């Protein structure tokens, strides 16, 4: 009986179990890197939001709308012995609305973080048809058409920071002298209760209406700035939006995708068309408590977000960190199984820590020089170090070259995982299967119980 062979094979069996345990232990610091990625990405997002807010925020434009107050008379109050009268406001949507938008986007930098802000020149054209009041279920309504206002609702009050210049307004082809005021202020009066003020984010101006059955044509120019995203609500019964920008990486968001789009390295163009039935909104509706549903869940547009996010890429790769630790350890183990050289568990730990620090370095460098350059730099350094270490541990330049090639293939797969969201699971699962298959093939003649290798 060959005692040396028996000891060798038994040692390899125990070594494989130990290597697996070490991979799990080193997975813990890899998960700590995952927590650091989360903290850095949160910090980057907070900085972006701060820059967005200074520029006017993520803009959502809803309108224009015509808002008209109505005095509604309902049943009597016992203590007053008179009919109850309350003021309610009703919004009327345009019969047709065309929006043409030209957007110039730039990146602003604060410390090591970038945020995209933009200047948008928005032109709105359309018309209001006959303003037919909705049916009032609990009384009769007297509309005060002389107190009608033309309003454009924004996402929040921060959006007012983004108005760059005075709005130009034409009504029925003529320049309109009245000017927009900040906010949409509505006063609700009710017998026995007094008054309540409702303030909505946006802009509004007085638009007295003499004949609610007449058509009202309008033209508006709205010079707006913002950050991160620009969206519109389908305010018109028939809404068409055209957007042109110099931003090369648009992310189309919201309830409707563009009907047509063209994206080049110089920018993009996109067109949307939302007919009346598709927008799922009535032609007129009470403002109080309802104006939010004009844009919530129905707005659409573009996010001006950089496509290269190092945090998403590193996060995706960290999900497979245990598998790649196993691949690196298996490479060393297979060298042990096919040679007389041995690697100490401490050497496995040092090798594993090198792979963990790789994720940390690629995260740190990508915040300064970009993800692709950071990955190329850190992967090259890690592969060179690991290959040289393998040549030293196993006293063989050839083993070092093989390790270098194996680690290069592994890091190539890591890069694919970092860059590919749709195929990450496929790449990861095939890699894991291939690693196990290779290990089974190389050790197929090894007698794990301690006997001789079979011929």
The helix/strand class is: alpha+beta
How far apart the termini lie comes to 16 Å
Helix share, percent: 25-40%
Strand content: 25-35%
Query: Oligomeric state of the chains?
Result: single chain
Secondary-structure element series: HEEEEEEEEEEEEEEEEHEEHHHHHH
Tally of DSSP β-strands: 18
Helix count equals 8
Shape: elongated
What is the alpha-carbon Rg in Å?
A: 33 Å
How would you characterize the largest beta sheet? 10 strands, mixed
The averaged pLDDT comes out at 82
Total domains: 2
List unreliable stretches of 5+ residues.
1-9, 451-455
Outline the structure in words.
With 455 residues, the chain is an alpha+beta fold. The chain has two domains: 3-44 and 311-442, no CATH class; 60-306, no CATH class. It has eight helices and 18 strands. Strands 1, 2, 5, 6, 9, 10, 12, 14, 17 and 18 form a ten-stranded mixed β-sheet that branches. It has an eight-stranded mixed β-sheet with strand order 8-7-11-4-3-13-16-15. Helix 3 crosses helix 7. It is elongated. The two termini are 16 Å apart.
What is the structure about, briefly put?
The chain is of the alpha+beta class and 455 residues long.
Key attributes of the depicted protein:
455 residues, alpha+beta, 2 domains, ten-stranded mixed beta sheet, eight-stranded mixed beta sheet, 8 helices, 33% strand, elongated, disordered N terminus, transmembrane helix, transmembrane, membrane, Cell envelope integrity protein CreD, Uncharacterised_IM_CreD
């Amino acid at each position: 009986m060959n005692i040396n062979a028996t000891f060798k094979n038994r040692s390899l069996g125990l070594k494989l179990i130990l290597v697996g345990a070490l991979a799990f232990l080193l997975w813990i610091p890899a998960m700590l890197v995952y927590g650091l990625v989360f903290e850095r990405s949160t910090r980057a997002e907070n900085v972006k939001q701060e820059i967005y807010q200074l520029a006017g925020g993520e803009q959502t434009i809803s309108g224009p709308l015509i808002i008209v107050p109505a005095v509604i008379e309902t049943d009597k109050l016992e203590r007053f012995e008179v009919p109850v009268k309350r003021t309610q406001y009703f919004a009327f949507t345009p019969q047709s609305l065309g929006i043409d938008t030209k957007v110039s986007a730039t990146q602003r930098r604060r410390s090591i973080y970038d945020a995209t802000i933009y200047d948008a020149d928005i032109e709105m054209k359309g018309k209001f048809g006959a303003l037919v009041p909705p049916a009032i279920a609990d009384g009769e309504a007297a509309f005060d058409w002389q107190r009608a206002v033309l309003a454009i609702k924004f996402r929040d009050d921060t959006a007012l920071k983004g108005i760059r210049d005075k709005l130009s307004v034409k009504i029925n082809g003529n320049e309109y002298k009245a000017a927009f005021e900040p906010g949409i202020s509505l006063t609700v009066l009710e017998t026995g209760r007094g008054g309540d003020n409702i303030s909505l984010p946006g802009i509004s101006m007085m638009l007295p209406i003499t004949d609610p059955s007449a058509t009202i044509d309008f033209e508006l120019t709205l010079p707006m700035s913002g950050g991160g995203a620009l969206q519109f609500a389908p305010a018109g019964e028939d809404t068409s939006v055209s957007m042109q920008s110099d931003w090369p990486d648009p992310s189309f968001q919201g309830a409707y995708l563009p009907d047509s789009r063209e994206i080049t390295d110089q920018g993009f163009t996109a067109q949307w068309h939302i007919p009346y039935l598709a927008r799922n909104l009535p032609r007129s509706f009470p403002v109080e408590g309802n104006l939010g549903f004009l844009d919530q869940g129905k707005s659409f547009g573009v996010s001006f977000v950089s496509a290269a996010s190092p945090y998403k890429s590193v996060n995706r790769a960290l999900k497979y960190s245990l598998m790649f630790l196993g691949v690196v350890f298996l490479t060393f183990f297979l060298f042990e199984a096919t040679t007389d050289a041995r690697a100490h568990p401490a050497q496995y730990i040092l090798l594993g820590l090198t792979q963990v620090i790789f994720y940390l370095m690629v995260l740190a460098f990508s915040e300064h020089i970009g993800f692709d350059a950071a990955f190329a730099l850190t992967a090259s350094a890690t592969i060179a170090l690991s290959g040289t270490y393998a040549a030293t541990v196993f006293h063989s330049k050839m083993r070092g070259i093989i390790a270098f090639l194996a680690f290069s293939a592994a890091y190539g797969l890591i890069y694919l995982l970092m860059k590919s969201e749709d195929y990450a699971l496929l790449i990861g699962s095939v890699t894991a299967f291939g690693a196990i298959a290779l290990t089974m093939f190389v050790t197929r003649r090894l007698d794990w119980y301690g006997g001789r290798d079979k011929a």
